[in-house]
Amino acid sequence: MSNAKVKAEIVSKEVEGKDAPWEPRITALVCNWCTYAGADLAGTSRMEYRPNVRIIKLPCTGRIDPLFIIKAFEKGADGVLVSGCHPGDCHYNAGNYHARRRWIGFNSLMEFIGIDMKRLHFSWISASEAIKWVDLVNDVTEEVKKLGPFGEYQDINKDGL
Hints:
Elements: H1 3-16, E1 26-31, H2 35-44, E2 53-58, H3 66-74, E3 79-84, H4 95-113, E4 120-124, H5 130-147, H6 153-158
Parallel strand pairs: 1-2, 1-3, 3-4
Helix pairs in contact: 2-5
């Protein structure tokens, strides 16, 4: 089913008063210089993709703290996407290398607190890769949708993290 048909189906169900099907909420933590610019290019090129992603723009993926990811889940995200410049193309020289090294720590931390790693995605997208952004958003949305709603974030918050 095309994106336009999915959107039309959701709108028509809301108009008819029926409950719309559940759609995942995905938080994207993206680099200002590459991934955000690629997402912007997708938008200005009028490429269609799933509307489930809410973007948080950061100067660099090297700036991402593990607490940002935990907070996204705590605030109701069903999935988190982290994306930045390709290795070697960082505007801050080595920020994406730091992010890549932290990814190993993120995995251990997420597993420790009980977050399924299928809900956390990491990618590299440059400013000229609008099509790659569209494909990534659609793929991540479908994968998270298969996992269903993520209610465990309430348990994370109860434990005082």
